[in-house]
Design brief:
The structure is a homodimer of 214-residue chains. Chain A contains nine helices and nine strands. With 214 residues, the first copy, chain A, is α/β, with parallel strands linked by helices. The structure holds a DNA duplex (30 and 30 nucleotides).
DNA sequence: CCTCTATTGTGAACACTTAAACAAAATTAT
DNA sequence: ATAATTTTGTTTAAGTGTTCACAATAGAGG
């Protein structure tokens, strides 16, 4: 394991830091303090320093952090020095939008294959990504050694598809279906439930008017 | 304010409970225990009981919870007894997919208007939702008294658009752009950063693999 | 009726997360 | 060179969230 146990809350903020550091580097900023970072990413400066400290002493007292070396450090932590290929399963409206989404612009991530059951989509190319028939899903995922998949199939089939993916070695699923997938403990699931997010937002509007959650 | 202070973590789980209770009711289940719920939604049963207890004593000892009355109770809590209209700003690939997404199927939420700067989209209808030119955004939002907005514009304009929305009384933004919006404290922002989610998933795969297949 | 069983609701312990505060250390100014 | 300033890294404390464990209690079965 590359690093020792980083708190989950910290891990979830790493991409936020990474992105903002890229912005700073593009703007030719040499150094940055935790206070400056704090304003931009809206995380308390003490939390930022604490987060960084899990990885060692990355800054200099009285100076701050060197943008370029910090960015390079996180590049390693976030596996951004090698290209990671992911697959997308379910080329409906949302799936198509994600095929078109430029993950590769900000990160060293790309969707290298998509799968769908609709015969008319089989063996076509969308946003530069080949779409294979569902029947080839397991074979392709094994061959391409893909271990992360974006799941945008209908809810009714999501558990079945997840089982198939797990059986060919997929280790992580970005699950856009509202179903709470049941998978082995060594498989990571990240849920993005759009309806829930919207419902939660409305709830917060009505009930937390004074505060600023998240 | 409808309810006393509900912990944020609890609030975020309410839509999950709500959805599963709907499923149970459709399946004509009369009663459910926290243990059963726990398996379905993958939240510890004690956590479920604690969550419910913030709203009072909703269950019966030795029996569990009555599905229908619990569902109706949460329906009120989650403002599901009245229709809530939201707007969508930015009809690109992702915006279009969300216009097509059937929020109204599971919830009493619908997108009632969309806005975009592209002249060719102005005054057209997509997935049954009217698209207005950006110039009419503030007027329409005021007139329709919309207080929640889905933001799917390019990053470069997101803060500017957010400011415009806030100035006409928008109280909540579901922000799909990677920019951390700066808004007054009484405005809620819920961020969905697709790149971050994918990056975090990859990080978890590499660093939190427990290697305990079931 | 009484006994047995199931399951809640919650006090208390534990775990995780955030943030205040400040000594230590490096930079910057004089 | 020295003093003033800045800003880190970390100690400590407070705040949030989760889970255990069990008394309290409702329902079911004699």
């Amino acid at each position: 394991m590359a690093t020792k146990k980083i708190p989950k809350a910290t891990a979830k903020r790493l991409p936020i830091y990474y992105r903002y550091l890229s912005v700073l580097l593009s703007a030719n900023k040499r150094r940055v303090s935790s206070t400056e970072l704090s304003e931009a990413v809206q995380v308390d400066s003490a939390t930022i320093r604490r987060d960084f400290s899990y990885f060692g002493e990355l800054g200099k007292r009285g100076y701050g952090y060197d943008v370029e070396s910090l960015l390079n450090f996180f590049k390693g932590i976030l596996n951004q020095d090698t290209l990671t290929s992911v697959a997308l399963v379910g080329v409906g409206a949302l799936g198509s939008a994600l095929l078109n989404y430029n993950f590769h612009q900000d990160t060293n991530l790309r969707i290298s294959a998509a799968f769908d059951t609709k015969p008319e989509l089989a063996n076509t190319v969308k946003s530069g990504i080949p779409i294979y028939p569902a029947s080839e899903m397991q074979k392709q995922i094994k061959e391409q050694q893909i271990d992360a998949v974006i799941l945008t199939v209908p809810s009714s089939t999501s558990q079945k598809v997840a089982d198939q993916l797990v059986s060919v070695g997929v280790k992580g699923i970005l699950n856009f279906t509202p179903v709470r997938l049941s998978v082995p403990k060594n498989v990571q699931v990240q849920n993005i439930d759009l309806t829930n997010e919207l419902q939660t937002l409305i709830y917060f509007i009505k009930n937390y008017a004074e505060n600023n959650p998240e």
